[in-house]
Amino acid sequence: MSKLNARMEQMEGGTKANRIFCLSVPQEALLDVACSLASNTQTLKVRNRIIIVKHSGLDAVSSHQLTQSLLSSFDEKQIYRIDHLLGRNIIENLTVLRFSNLVFEPLWSRRYIRNVQIILSEELGAQMQGRDIVHSHILQMIVLHAVELPISLDGEDTRNEKVKVLRSIRRLDLSDCTLMQFKDSSEDKVNVLMNSQTPTFFAAALYIDNAHWDGVPFLIKAGMGLIKHGVEIRIQFNHVPGNWYREHIGHNIDLATNELILRDAPDEAILVKVNNKIPGLGLQLDALDLSLMETTIFS
Hints:
Blueprint: H1 2-12, E1 19-23, H2 27-40, E2 48-53, H3 60-71, E3 79-82, H4 89-99, E4 113-123, H5 133-146, H6 155-168, E5 177-180, E6 201-206, E7 218-226, E8 230-237, E9 259-265, E10 269-277, E11 285-291
């Protein structure tokens, strides 16, 4: 790290340049790298910042220990914790859709939304390793869906509203979850998880106990070693009360539920599922997906 410090001083050439360190390193190496940076590369001339990509510990105890260790070397205002998934276009669009469109904003509550489904699936392959998907990626996605409009886009105001949601989430017991582990029985593939006890599939219903979301289940499904890679949020609205066309929808009324779908993978898309009359002399309804995103803007 002393060589790094000397190199930065050479590049700065005596000017007052802020120093920002982004640590995208394995969790077991995080503290060693952070402490070494704190001891050898901080300067009193300018601002020093450290960015930690996603890591927040493996459980409540390790998360607290990690935070305390970082605070022994850095002030809280120097530490930035980021989740790379939240930088995706679709995830960033979630709050934009909510707060900048009158067509959605009044509908965003328990009165109109029946459930919210958050699905993250990964295929077989090299990516099959321990990942803190639920308490990192998915929890952040739930918070962005349920957060109230902050008084400004300032980071502190946004953080305060997100904390309110986190404090309102009902305690999730292990008995309320479904945990499974991928096992590959084929002879031509190596099961990289054979000696691990870490679950590779998780499903649960999460509830937020506040006036806005009371009774609305947030259905989480996350797994590795599945058929395909996919990341999507499905916001399913309530049925239309006294729907005159109920008998023309088909045997399964759930197929006619309006949905807002934000899909990041395999194909990026924002879709609204609406009911539409099938052309012809009869009166039969079918679901139609309306795209809200021009794919060319992301090419």
